Amino acid sequence: MVTFTRRRLAAVALVATAALLGATACGGGDDEAAAGGPVTLTVDVFGQFGYEELYKEYMASHPDVKIVERGTGSNLDEYSPKLTQWLAAGKGAGDIVAIEEGLLVEYKANPQNFVNLLDHGAADLKGNFLDWKWNQGLTADGKQLIGLGTDVGGMAMCYRKDLFAKAGLPTDREAVSKLWPTWADYIRVGEQFKAKNTGASFLDAATNTFNTILLQTAGNTSGYSYYDTSDKLVVDSNPAVRQAYDTTMDIIDSGLSGRYGSWSEEWVSAFKQSKFATIACPAWMTGVIEGNAGAGAKGRWDIAQVPGNGGNWGGSFLAVPKQGKHQAEAIELAKFLTSAKGQIGAFKAKGPLPSSPQALADPAIVDSTNAYFSAAPVGKIFAEGAKGLKPVYMGPKNQAVRTEVENAVRTVELGKRSPEQGWTDAVENAKKAAAK
Amino acid sequence: MAVQLDARPPVAPAPGTTRPSRGARLSRFDTRYSPYLYIAPFFLLFGVFGIYPLAYTFWVSLHDWDLLGAEHPFVGFDNYSQLLADPDFWHSVVNTLGIFVIATIPQLLLALWLANLLNRQLRARTTWRMAVLIPNVTSTAAVAIVFAVLFGRDFGMINWLLDHVGVDAVDWKANRLASWVAISTMVDWRWTGYNALIFLAAMQAIPRDLYESAAIDGAGRARQFWSITVPLLKPTIIFAVIISTIGGLQLFTEPRLFNSGTNAIRGGPLRESQTVTMYMFENAFAPHYNFGYGSAIAWLLFALIAVVAAVNVLLLRRLGGGARKEEPR
Q1: Measured between CA atoms, how close is B323 to chain A, in angstroms?
Q2: Tens digit of pLDDT for each residue in A246-272?
Q3: Which among B68, B173, B262 has CB closest to A77?
Q4: Predicted ipTM?
């Protein structure tokens, strides 16, 4: 009888403990902060943000904070649907999430998912950002600040010195910049390059170049691309779009493109195998090139001025989702990472160009060189133009529309459509996508 | 002993009459309902993870459901009528069916042939039988990535080999038919061995004496195969076809990973190898985030699978009809 009772008691206790354990295990994640233990902050990024050293520094000065970064090196195409799902589900997103400029418009349409940073003293930071970068982070009514700017995408042209030498072209970056004041000149140089049969194409993919030309043309003229500032789709009536399309068609006609689908595995292989000589190069692309071409190509790349005049492609923001459990800590960290100091640190690590005028004027940026790119003075090349960057307005379905137009460019590049058919497709499919 | 002293006194015995009747009731309850209890866990799980999502998806498909939006207005069957008139959807249906046909027919024939070989007296028989399953236990993603590299336009091994025999390089990703073939190869690589083992198991259930008497009657190996093995395997073949139909029409990982880079979900600039599931994903998630439309696609896919599976079964019934009348199962 004794043993029976004891055994039964033990069983009851076991079940009770298991149930309790189960309950605490479920609740564990939520109660961390209340318990006063260290707070773990998750930062969701894509590509290369260059924050590793900054995290270490921050954790050293904030012993109660632990930082975990997810998604480093991932493709934006993989990252953004995940982020959207997390936001829709109300669960899963990091305490801080990175948002790319072109996608920010869609997230801004539903600002209830994010903490209004204006409520947390962000208004004082306005002077730390280029005006247009600050404004991009605001909702249409200007009442909510969704994201603090990280970088801007000042434009240059990266090129392979060794391939240029092989084709008998100048290799010095000043001389190369002088070769192509306009895109027509760029095509002319490309034809010279092609005639020398180096075994490499002149450029990687027409789609990347198209986007570069479009953002540059739009920035220099209307200030918008596929949508006008009243969010009306103007893909077929904005001369900037047609102009960029026509220039890209000239590039394709001259057979300069290696036709590697951008961001595909073949594109990455083409970097490694030295299959193209130039690539349109927003500041953040330098980190991508280094990652794709690998250590073996160190010193073979260099950076020249972009044909045409300036332009901005990409750049990101850090936002704090409302579903986060540690919003106060996350806001502090986001402020630190987007401060002038944080932006300088990121630039040194992976090359994203600061959006803070203080950082852009800092000698640490202005005098910086990039060893991978033959010690090119990246600070001078990118930072000088950054203050004069003209932003391009992006409408609600910018990403979907851009996808359609770039796909049309790609079909022409692959010889599946004539330039005229391609344009018809681009306009039709863009309208369809915008209506979805 | 002290414990026993402190223990509660025994409860007064229950009146004698209720005991047997309660026992009888229990046992009746037991025989009548416990079978349902035993199978209940499956149906409970199926309800939670099968029926509920299905019904919820249908509910979502009746709304204009922006994934991030706060409001989801009810639109009735608008998503469906829009979808039926959507050429891109039908394009993806054709792709899916094309890949399904190119993948499944050779796969099942090959599996049948493999099973037939494995059913003979072979040295190290178990090793061979295990070996055909190896492709199935490798991760789909790994297989897809390796094949995507093999089928690369500029740096792929297949084109390199083709070049050696004097065939021009094929742009596997930008040519619709070529991309179907490439994806079908992946599917076959993965599933042929699996189906072969299923066929093999069924073959071993065929009585040996049938073959012996056929041999006495002068039937050769081929005749035995077509007149005994295949007809008797019919239920198994139907099973394999239905499973392949479900898997084939839901094909996602292989074509998705075959296309890499920007907008891989489109399956190429002209949607060369975009399957229905990829189209669903494109609409429900990036770049459109139109959850209602995506859910409508999911339901039409469900209907499509049901139709194709039914057609397959009918065709197969007809096919082996003359061989031997079977007992209904």
Answers
A1: 49
A2: 999 999 999 999 999 888 888 999 999
A3: B262
A4: 0.79
C-alpha A433/C-alpha B251 separation (Å) is 24
- Please write the tens of the pLDDT for every residue from A280-339: 999 889 988 998 999 999 999 999 999 988 888 989 999 999 999 999 999 999 999 999
Q: What is the pLDDT at residue A12?
A: 47
Q: Where in chain A is the domain with CATH 3.40.190.10?
A: 39-152+315-366, 155-313+380-435
A273 and B286: CB-CB below 8 Å? no
**Is pLDDT above 90 for B317?**
no
Q: What topology is assigned to B82-319 in CATH?
A: MetI-like fold (1.10.3720)
A112·B70 Cβ contact <8 A: yes
pLDDT of A28 reads 39
Distance of alpha carbon A70 from alpha carbon A58, whole angstroms: 17
Residues on chain B bordering chain A, Cβ-to-Cβ distance under 8 angstroms? 3-4, 7, 66-70, 145, 148-149, 152-155, 171, 173-174, 259-266, 269-270, 283, 285-291, 293
Q: Which of B195, B280, B186, B297 is nearest to B243 (CA)?
A: B195
pTM score, whole prediction: 0.81
Taking contacts as CB-CB distances below 8 angstroms, the residues of chain A near B66 are: 110
Write down the architecture of domain A155-313+380-435 according to CATH. 3-Layer(aba) Sandwich (3.40)
Distance (Å) from the alpha carbon of A428 to chain B's nearest alpha carbon: 13
Assign domain A39-152+315-366 one CATH number from 3.30.830.10, 3.10.450.540, 3.20.20.70, 3.40.190.10. 3.40.190.10
B109, two tokens: 């024939």
CA gyration radius, chain A: 25
Rounded to whole angstroms, the Cα distance separating A359 from A341 reads: 7
Residue of A263, A273, A403 lying closest to B287 (CB–CB):
A403
Tell me the pLDDT band of B181, cut-offs 50, 70 and 90: very high
Q: Contacts of residue A110 in chain B, CB cutoff 8 Å?
A: 66, 68-70
Q: How many CB pairs under 8 A join A and B?
A: 103
Look at A319-333, B16-30, B182-196 and tell me which has the smallest mean pLDDT. Answer: B16-30
The whole-chain average pLDDT of chain B stands at: 87
Chain B: closest CA distance from residue A73 (Å): 13
